[in-house]
Amino acid sequence: MDFKKLLAYQKAFDLAMSIFEISKSFPKEETYSLTDQIRRSSRSVCANMAEAYRKRIYPKHFISKLTDADGENSETNSWLDFALACNYISSEDYFKCSEEGKEVGKLINYMINNPGKFGVKVD
Question: pLDDT per position in the chain (123 positions), as tens?
């Protein structure tokens, strides 16, 4: 199985692309701060999941990288909080992205708690 077929990866990728589109309207003064940070953290969720999946022969590394993905997902949610507080995004976009982030987090945690279902050899 390819990591791109993982539901968690697909949903995280879709969220990262939504955030990319939404963040295009952020003020220019946020280019190298909030805009950059929220894009990087949302994309990092996918990158960490891809790396975890490819390293699944090593159970501890698999879980470690998924934990990193979960952390990046939480960071993304924090940046969404700032974007809302600064009135850079609508309440609707905030709610949609926040709910999608929660779903991604649940899927990542499912993978962490059930590594054997993803090709990891558990003792």
Answer: 799 999 999 999 999 999 999 999 999 999 999 999 999 999 999 999 999 999 999 999 999 999 999 999 999 999 999 999 999 999 999 999 999 999 999 999 999 999 999 999 887
Give me the CATH number covering residue 51: 1.20.1440.60
Model confidence pTM above 0.90: yes
Could you give the CA distance from residue 58 to residue 48 in angstroms, rounded to a whole number?
A: 15
Its domain, for residue 108, covers: 3-114
Residues 6+ apart with CB under 8 A from 93: 22
Which structure tokens are listed for 44? Answer: 């990092």
Instruction: List Cα–Cα distances, 110 to 8, 24, 70, 117, 121, in angstroms.
Output: 9, 32, 11, 10, 16
Cβ–Cβ under 8 Å, residues 108 and 68: no
Domain tally, the chain: 1
